[in-house]
Amino acid sequence: MSRKNYRSLTLPEGLYKKLKKYVERSNGSYVSVSEVVREALRDYLKNTS
Fold this sequence. Notes:
The protein is mainly α. The protein has two helices and no strands.
């Protein structure tokens, strides 16, 4: 997928730091904050639609 098919979001610093710690404690289940956010948003949208 080309970069033009992406958009960026801004997170508050505190939330980003919490997510980064979550990634670090995930033992390799997640490799980035972006991956966690992407999965969480997909789950949220799936469960609210």
